[in-house]
Amino acid sequence: MYYDETADAVLKALNTSEAGLSSEEAENRLEKYGKNELKEEEKTSVVKLFLSQFKSFLIVILVVAALVSAALGELIDAFVIMFTVFLAGVLGFVQEYRAEESIKLLKSLTSPEALVVRDKKEVKIPSALLVPGDILLLQTGDRIPADARLLEVLSLKIDESSLTGESAPVGKSTDVFPLETPEPDRKNIAYTGTAVAYGRGKAVITATGMNSAFGKLAGLLGEIERERTPLQEKLDQFGRWLGIATLVVVAFVAVLGVLQGFSPFEMFLWGVALAVAAIPEALPAVVTVGLALGVRRMVKRHALVRKLPSVETLGSTNIICTDKTGTLTQNKMTVEKVYVNRAVLNVTGRGYEPVGDFFRGDEPVSKDEPVSKDEPVSKDEPVSKDEPVSKDEPVSKDAHLHKLLVAGALCNDAGLIQEEEVWDITGDPTEGALVVAAAKAGIWKIALEEKHRRTGEVPFSSERKMMTTLNNSKDGLYAYSKGAPEVILASCTKIFLGEHEEQLTPEIRQEILDTLHEMANQTLRVMGFAYRKVAENILPEEAEKEMVFAGLMGMRDPPREEVKVAIATCADAGIRTVMITGDHKITAFAIARELGIFREGDLVLTGIELDALDDRKFEEIVEKISVYARVYPEHKLKVVEALKKKGYVVAMTGDGVNDAPALKAADMGIAMGITGTDVSKEASSMILTDDNFASIVSAVEEGRNILKNIKNFIAYGLTCHIGVVLIVLVGVLAWQILPVIAVQILWINLITDGLPPMALSLEAPDKGLMKQKPRKSTEGLVSKRMIIASLGLGSLIAIQSLGVLYWSLNNGVSLPKIQTLIFTLVVISLMFNAFNWRSDRNSIFSLGIFTNRSLIYAVLSTVLLQLAAIYVPIMQTAFRTVPLSFSDWAMIIPLASTTLIAMEITKYLEKRIHR
Questions:
Q1: How far apart are CA 624 and CA 156, in angstroms?
Q2: What is the pLDDT of residues 216-228, one digit of tens each?
Q3: Catalytic site residue 323?
Q4: Catalytic residue (choose from 77, 134, 147, 323)
Q5: Which residues lie in Basic and acidic residues bias regions (predicted)?
């Protein structure tokens, strides 16, 4: 494990260096060691997946029936039954295979990434491609992707509870430990599956995949699990209920048929066929495919659902608690105002281009030199100007501004780069804005860091709301801090004024707070800055006392243009939006009001005010609060629990390590894909690949649509089963005739439960879908309204078929012709019925007849198969059919179309009544 060797010895043993491996060497090692993955259970082969389709009890009975038919000399019946069973198996196989492939795609999309040094560059690569010898860069929130020996640590603490069960994060070091040191005490090792709770570090990977500590505990890690969805469980219950009811009816009619003179074998065969037709055994597979296809559509809309059951939750969500920065806003910070030396300066320039100046009134107060074009800037080269910062005197004309900008640039982990004439930042956008602001005054971060080498730091955390670095220069060791203005002010006893350090009086402190409020009212995000000269041996944590206040910087992060519309869409859909942010109360309120989150009568609560409320009082007012400002991650958990107690289905966004409890507690935890930590992503149900609130609303719409489509094709199938059962039941009871024979029932089941439901799962959202209220989480799989509609349409199909039977018997039509007419009438009626269930509320004409081309192709394919069953000689023999004439079709098509006409009239009347 290399814990008993020095860092240099480990690098030598692994034949690598801190400059990282080359891409070529990494590929060679990947071939040698294999992918950094745990071995999964043996996957079901394609052959096994196909054979598994024939394990159903009813399928087994059908096979037995085919064998009995063959033994009795009914070879055609035996062949037709086996052929139908085979086709049903193929259909089930295709559905399950597509579901498996969709889930496999989801796994690949959610595979974690790691930041490593390759070819002397910092790059993000999929964790599966890591190899021993890779140099791994770690920061707060990262999930450790492989076992690694630490080379550098900066206040690094790792949560190893997933490996050791120890709840407290373990402080790490680069010390060498004796050979007999037990695994949990090897503090220079970072283990696979653990998480960085605090600080930063650099490490060299020593073991991957099954060779890691977690690999030896094979199977403890997982990504997306293939699990049964709540919908599938409900479908099973629904299927069992329908199956029991059907079997009772079938048994009753079969016995009655035998008593009325039908042969026992014929009634057995018919009973099995009717049971297969009535029980929706294919629906779970269709539902899985529908869910998987819907989730793939969500990916295109920047929402990655990690587990299929979450789709059902999306349809019920009625409150979305969201972060502000990056989610509601563009996360492209630009410094617009600066407060130094008791004066507010305006900053010009836009975006990340380091061109602009600082103005006091109309007078510029800093140099504004052009960026050198002689030396191109790339990710591999330091940003520089013609005149790099190498002088002892300030570059800025204003010493106070210089001091502030230096603090902002040094207490900072972001960078400024230029690629193909375009300026951009690396790292956090807020920190990037500070680096750009400094560059506008000629203070370039990389050149500055060469003179002020960082020797220690206290990383930013959402609890502390500040960050401090220790930087060594020829003038001595300095601490630089940045963070929430109130926190920075609390750490200061002095202020830099008139080029001197003076006492920070209560009057000046109040002036700073007033300036802070004024900036916040202008929707600026404000940060405070401080510095202090410290002793050489001081601990970083001790440096955050008795500091000198340097000033404020006000940044603007404009709201995303699409968010205001998305929030209005949420309101129409019965979904409340709640903002939860660490920003100042005034800034949060101003943006919430601008976006339409805050409404008249709502409340704005700060973290301190929330702490002052007991649980009972908070639960009384929680429904009125639309903005939470200056909150900590634990407050998110409190908000989620209070809202859930009120019966709400809550979606919660988060990106930090400490957001994980709230994300897990929420009904729908939503992690940020860009800024989110690995820990927050792992705790979430869904990941936003663009960190955009509008994508949450798109996902809710898609989730609602998936549920709508699933319910619709269940209702479509229910119509078919009800119709066939009623036709045969009444035919046997009233006329002692089987209106359709067993093989015809099996054929109806096969072709109508195949392509049309799949096509219905691809139906686009209804126009009014996001104007409906969220469905209740306790709502059943199929509503009473849908059951009544299915029962009505099934009865209509049965009445028409029995009417044809009655008319045909009275006009001397032969039994094979009668059975062919009813057989075809049922299939064509169900094809018209498929168009009914594109929407349970909207007319096919308002949706557009050709807007779901998949359904048109599915219906045409099914009709062609039915035509083959009645016109192709070999299939005529198999299905006991006879050719139909033009006059027969002239009767069938108008009768079949009434299923569509009846539903259209019902939808029209419902809309009239609703209006």
A1: 41
A2: 654 443 443 444 5
A3: yes
A4: 323
A5: 359-396
